[in-house]
Each structure stands twice: as C-alpha cells, then as structure tokens.
Amino acid sequence: MSRRFTPKVVTANRLREGDVVYLTTDDRWSPVHHEAELIEDEAHAQMRLLHAAAQKLLVVGAYLADAKPGANGPEPTHFREEFRTRGPSNYNHGKQADLAS
Amino acid sequence: MYSYSDFDEAFVRTRVAQFTNQVERRLDGSLTEDEFRPLRLMNGLYLQLHAYMLRVAIPYGTVSPRQMRQLAYIADTWDKGYGHFTTRQNIQFNWPKLPDVPAILQALADVEMHAIQTSGNCVRNVTADHFAGAAADEIADPRPYAELLRQWSTDHPEFQFLPRKFKIAITGAPNDRAVTKAHDIGLRMVRNAAGEPGFEVMVGGGLGRTPMIGVTVRDFLPEADLLPYVEAVLSVYNTLGRRDNKYKARIKITVHETGAEEITRMIEARFAELRPLFGGNDLKLLADISEAFAPPAFRSAPTDAYDAFYSADPVFRAWSDTNLTAHRNSQYVIVTISLKAHGETPGDASSAQMRLMADLAEKYGHGDLRISHEQNVILPHVHKSDLPTLHAALTQAGLGTANVGLLSDIIACPGMDYCALATARSIPVAQELATHFEALKLEHEIGPLKIKISGCINACGHHHVGHIGILGLDRAGVENYQITLGGDGTEDAVIGEKTGPGFAYTEIVPAIERILRAYLDLRTEPSETFLQAYKRVGMEPFKAALYEAEGEKDAA
C-alpha cells in the first residue's frame, strides 16, 4: 500500500513585492496561511501547482508545502513554513507586522 | 580612496540601464522567471524567504561617508530603515520590492557603488584586511591590489561562467585578519630575502560543506606578476572545475582531486603562457590606483587628554581596551565600532547609525570607513585626542558597546530569519548568547573568544573557523545546532572539530555555557585564552562538560 498523502498547500512569493502568498480554493493569492486551500489528494495537488506555476506575472517559485488542518484553517507543519507565515524573529517586520495593521 | 574613472562610470550606468530594462520586461511578461533569474542574480538580487534581498558590494570593505549616507538613504527610501553588513564585507537590504530595484541601483551608481558580481559563478567582491592602510603590522596597503583585481575581474569575459563562485581575499600584514586561508585564492603579503614585497599565494581554501584550508602554490609571487598569476589560477580552474556536480565545483575540490603538486605545475605552466601577454599596462594601472590610496595627512597633536580620560573613566577604558587597535602612527588608533550591542542583530545598522558613523568619520576619521568581515564598522584613522568625544557620540547612538573580540562579538549569518537556503535560525541564537552572558557578567572574565554561527552548511557565518562554531541544521523537522571547537581564522588557520551530537534550539545556549564554565575551571591563568586552553587540553574535557550533564539528566 502506498504511503498516505500528506496534505499540502500551494505557496509562492509575489513577483513584485516578494512576500509569501498561498493559493486559495477560489484562486486568489492570500498572504494568510489559514486562507489557503488544504489539498488532500495528490493528483489535485499537482493540478493546483500547475495552475499556480502558470501565473507568471503574479508569483514566483510556487511549490507544495506540507500542512495540516487547524481550527482556523490550514497550519504549517515544518518550522520553515511557520516562519514564512510570520516573518523574521529579530524585528517586527514582514507578515507579523503587515497583517496586524 | 579610489574614484571611478569615466570607464567605470559608463560601465556601471550601462549595467543599470540594462537591468532596468530587464526588470520592465520581467514585469510585463516578456521575460520568464527562468530567463530573468540569472540576470537578477548577476546584479545581486536574490529572492529570499520573506522578500527580495539586494546584496551591494563594498569593494575590500572601504566605504566613504558619502556612500554610507547613500546606503542610509536607500534603507529609508526603499527598505525598512536598516542594512545588514555581511561576512564578505557587503551590505544587504532585506526588503526591496522588484519594481524599485532599478531606482536603488541608480542611487548606488550616483555614489560609485553597484551590486554587480555579488552573486553567480563569477569572481565575487574581493575582500581585504579591514585595517588596511592603518595597521601597525602592515607591509603595504593591500587595497590597490584588491582594486586592480576588482577592475580585472569585473565582467571578465573568460570568467563570467566559472564552475562555481570564486572568492579572493587579500591581506598586507603577516597577521591575517581577512581569513585568506579559507578563500578560493588567498593572497598574503610577505617580503622575500631581498626585502621586496610580494605575495604568498594560497589556493583552494573554503568553508561550506567541505571545509578546507588553502594550499600554498607560490611562497613568493612578485607583485608585478599578480594579475597574470591570478588569471592562470582562474584559467586552470575554469578548465578543470567539476561543472557536473555543484557540490564538487569549487576550486578546493579541484585542488584536492588534482593534488597540490600537479595543480601547482599546471598553474605555473599556464602562468608561463600568460605572463608575456601582460605588456605592463596592468602595472601602470596599479601605479595610478595606488595614488588613490595615499595615506591621509596625519596631524600631530598632544594625546594627554586621551591618557587622562583613560585613567579617569572606567567605561571609556573598557571600550578602549577592547575596541582600539594599534595604528602605524603612534598618535593614532584604529577604532572598531561594534555592531553587536547585546541583544541586537549582529551586523545590522539603522539608517540613523549609518549617518552618524558617516559624520564621525568626517569629523574624526579622515573620511574613511571600513566594513569588517566580522560585521563591524571601522574608523581606521582616529587621533587619540578625539577618542573621548568620539566615544561619547557613539555611546549615545547605541554604538559604544565595548565587546570587540569578546564572546558577544559574534558573527552570524542571516539564517532562517531571512535566507532561503538556511536550515535553522542563527540571529536569535547570537542574540541570546550575548544577553545571557551579559546577564551573568562573564564576558570580560572569559576574555578573547570568537563565536561564529551559520544557519546552514554553506557556512556564511564562518563557523568552521570560530573558536566555538555553531551550525544550525534541520534534524527531522526540528532546529538542531552542532558545535565545533578550536577553529581559527587567522594565519594559523584551523578547521574546528565537531563535539558530537547537536543540541536543540532551547539547549544550545546552556551547552555553550557548559563549555565556557569548563574552560574557566581548567585554564591555567586568566591570560590563557579559550583557544590556547583548547589547544593545550584538546576536546575531551569540553566533551565531558557538554555531554556528561546530559547523561545525568537522562538517568534522573
């Protein structure tokens, strides 16, 4: 039996600003991880990644990142992805500041 | 300092225009990311974890007050009001937006700066001793040679697509402050039997995943042969380098696989071919460049005010003891401004701090500023009588930290707080180490110590040559920190030795404390430094201190 598919989100950086974004179910790019589409099927994940990679004027470097369901929506499972949802730890810069305002 | 010639000016402006057009074409879709990526990298623009990052070259770490103010202006106008000075004497802006980058490059060109060849498989920014032209132990100022190498390597048609990146470091003093033995080419100025200056040429040093100390391929290279010889090294590497495997593509692997003797023979053979092709224009150019690095007009004035202040004010005395270095002129000193205030990010300066340092350099430092690979800023020429006023001004701006060469003077790469390649964070580890030992008031008791932290195996934080090196890794989805001991980045360069299993993020600071308490217990006298003690007793006592406590905890 093949291994169970780890749920994913599609994430990338915005072409112009460079900030981290996530692909939503309704095809938007959201800065909020919770708003991402949690993809539980491998074939669907590949389709969504192709869809993301085709948006060359909006985003750069789209990839699938492991995620898990949470109370408010998908949550990252790896610390790198967790840092990407927030910003750096030495200054209140990036999303932790942008999303608070 | 060196001023752009018409040729330099035209070249940089043309490149800005080219890249401006390339950014436009990327934004309108005419260029794909695959097409654009190598173009942006050639101009120092990376896409990192949270944003773009622009790496600006500070050739051989020399920057003028006017340039420093422009960096502050860029930080305020297009970034978040600060810049990060790196271990390769560059400055990085962490938050530029792609459409703004052409304007930033234009602003850099206005002050004779650029971001060319700060990335990619080419000859990178040539680094030099940050005390160049001032140090008491110096044979000659290495910067004219560094500038010659910069001009020669910039857009050199043969060396734009090397097997891998290529880093050259140069020092004019026997005491190596430029880590020359850990560079692709290290140049160390020496004198021959006749007393003429020349270079010991070391090739194939490097840190990263396969750390190696450079091999000396020439004990004495006359200065007139510098360019043809360096070109011969590059030429041999360009032919032999392993383009098939990124991890084996650096010249250190080429040297290792070819053997020191054979590679030396090949370099000498190529040098014999190239030497006659250099007709002497390189030396004419070197002579012109050297004029630009003439020493400033040192003034002669009494220094008693300094002596009086030194005995009277303990805070000033502490700062003088750690942050000053002997100058070749006995009335002068070299001032290191620490960018390592306890709890702050190593190497970061706010725009206000940059402006202040520019002002102080103009007022008290003959208009000269340097960036060290240890991520501090240097005022290389300060008259001793100006030190009390200078120290007061620095202290007011949070730049008066008296810790140069001590525990909290830590090198740290940006790590996973910024870098897309990182496997763990390094900045918060540096911050915690500094504040923890500050709270314990142990830093001055411990004395000279170099802690260097990298957030991944690429070793931008030089951890292999730290007396204590810390390498952040991703172990099964958790940050884990490996410790090395006994590394040394000086003329006696040594790669540090791994202690054993790594430590979790919350365990790394206590682990370093165990090492240092063991050191305090076993040193023969306070003047025996950590590195000397390590060389005397070896790894075992430190290993015991590190891991025995763990064993007890597990057993409990």
Task: Describe the secondary structure blueprint for this structure.
The complex is a heterodimer of chains A (101) and B (556).
Chain A: E1 8-14, E2 20-23, E3 29-30, H1 42-53, E4 59-68, E5 75-76, H2 79-86, H3 95-98
Antiparallel strand pairs in A: 1-2, 1-4, 2-3, 4-5
Chain B: H1 6-27, H2 33-42, E1 45-47, E2 52-56, E3 62-63, H3 65-78, E4 82-85, E5 91-93, H4 101-110, E6 127-128, H5 143-153, E7 168-171, E8 185-191, E9 197-203, E10 215-222, H6 226-240, H7 251-258, H8 260-274, H9 281-292, H10 304-312, H11 314-323, E11 324-326, E12 332-337, E13 348-350, H12 351-364, E14 369-371, E15 377-383, H13 387-396, E16 411-412, H14 427-440, H15 443-446, E17 451-454, E18 468-475, E19 478-485, E20 497-498, E21 503-504, H16 508-522, H17 530-537, H18 540-555
Parallel strand pairs in B: 6-7, 7-8, 16-17, 17-18
Antiparallel strand pairs in B: 1-2, 2-5, 3-14, 4-5, 4-13, 8-9, 9-10, 11-12, 12-15, 14-15, 18-19, 19-20, 19-21
Helix pairs in contact in B: 1-2, 1-4, 3-4, 3-12, 5-9, 6-8, 7-8, 10-11, 12-13, 14-16, 16-18
Summarize the structure.
Chain A has 101 residues and is an alpha+beta fold. Chain A has helices at residues 42-53, 79-86, 95-98; strands spanning 8-14, 20-23, 29-30, 59-68, 75-76.
Report on the structure:
The complex is a heterodimer of chains A (101) and B (556). Chain A has one domain (8-98). The longest helix of chain A has 12 residues, at 42-53. In chain A, strand 4 and strand 5 (75-76) form a beta hairpin. By secondary structure, chain A is α+β, with helices and mostly antiparallel strands. In chain A, strands 3-2-1-4-5 form a 5-stranded antiparallel β-sheet, with helices on both faces. Chain A has helices spanning 42-53, 79-86, 95-98, and strands spanning 8-14, 20-23, 29-30, 59-68, 75-76. With 556 residues, chain B is an alpha+beta fold. Chain B has 4 domains: 6-110, Alpha-Beta Complex (Sulfite Reductase Hemoprotein, domain 2); 142-292, 2-Layer Sandwich (Sulfite Reductase Hemoprotein, domain 1); 304-396, Sulfite Reductase Hemoprotein, domain 2 (Alpha-Beta Complex); 411-555, Sulfite Reductase Hemoprotein, domain 1 (2-Layer Sandwich), CATH 3.30.413. Helix content of chain B is 39%, strand content 17%. Chain B has 18 helices and 21 strands. Chain B has helices spanning 6-27, 33-42, 65-78, 101-110, 143-153, 226-240, 251-258, 260-274, 281-292, 304-312, 314-323, 351-364, 387-396, 427-440, 443-446, 508-522, 530-537, 540-555, and strands spanning 45-47, 52-56, 62-63, 82-85, 91-93, 127-128, 168-171, 185-191, 197-203, 215-222, 324-326, 332-337, 348-350, 369-371, 377-383, 411-412, 451-454, 468-475, 478-485, 497-498, 503-504. In chain B, the strands form 4 sheets. In chain B, strands 16, 17, 18, 19, 20 and 21 form a 6-stranded mixed β-sheet that branches. The N and C termini of chain B lie far apart (64 Å). The chains are: A alpha+beta (101), B alpha+beta (556). Chain A binds chain B through residues 13, 15-20, 56-57, 60-61, 77-80, 83-84, 87-91, 93-95, and chain B through 26-27, 29, 32-33, 47-52, 80, 94-99, 345, 348, 416-418, 425, 427-428, 431, 474, 477-479.
